[in-house]
């Protein structure tokens, strides 16, 4: 992801000036840059002024290389730089990435397979065969901080991670399910632990590719036996605050841009030690 001045994109997406929308061909789908209008800024920041229009442009590899040749900038990973951005930039990049992922997955209609066109400044795609509008969707997921009678926190290691990386248990909400019911089910499925009355603590848009993480805190039933499902979760451990604070405990915890980190720090009572973060 990059933040660039409009003139850097001239010739790539048809921008003619700092206040003009990039040109897009409504008769095509994503064989070329996808241009999305994100609105105007309400306040000034280090990067822009109040009232400035904001556009997101999704480029293919060739377009990305061409832009790099123009301004010599570097492409950045939102996961790594989110904590360095102000609220405006973080919100813009999160929205832009989620929408770019949606466009990349909806070049063709999910109903009939026909090509789709881009409308409404990038916020709608239309099936050319059935004339049906397609709108962006967000997948809801729950993430749960679970404590026991000793006030330890339960963390699990996912099968896709390195062996010493741990985080909270999480999963997607199923059709017809409340957030609270999803939290109870996901925890039971992944760990064998029964929780009751999970309490909402906050949410975070998570554009990887397009989710809304809904956070909870919950208490495990006494005598809970840990049974990792062996599919998604390979290992489960209860951690005390002393263990989290100990540099000798070889674990990696969630990065500072994640709601998982915020929930763990809420339990911990402050910022987590940096030696456990990667």
Automatic annotation (TrEMBL):
Annotated keywords: Hydrolase, Magnesium, Metal-binding, NAD
Superkingdom assignment: Bacteria
Matches recorded under Gene3D superfamilies: 3.90.79.20, Nucleoside Triphosphate Pyrophosphohydrolase (3.90.79.10)
Pfam families noted in UniProt: NUDIX (PF00293), NUDIX-like (PF09296), Zn_ribbon_NUD (PF09297)
Catalytic activity: a 5'-end NAD(+)-phospho-ribonucleoside in mRNA + H2O = a 5'-end phospho-adenosine-phospho-ribonucleoside in mRNA + beta-nicotinamide D-ribonucleotide + 2 H(+)
InterPro entries (alphabetical): NAD-cap_RNA_hydrolase_NudC (IPR050241), NADH_PPase-like_N (IPR015375), NudC-like_C (IPR049734), NUDIX_hydrolase-like_dom_sf (IPR015797), NUDIX_hydrolase_CS (IPR020084), NUDIX_hydrolase_dom (IPR000086), Znr_NADH_PPase (IPR015376)
Protein EC: 3.6.1.22
Cofactor(s) listed in the protein's UniProt record: Mg(2+); Zn(2+)
Domain annotation Nudix hydrolase: ranges: 136-265
Family assignment from sequence similarity: Belongs to the Nudix hydrolase family. NudC subfamily.
Protein name stated in the entry: NAD(+) diphosphatase
Lineage: Bacteria, Bacillati, Actinomycetota, Actinomycetes, Micrococcales
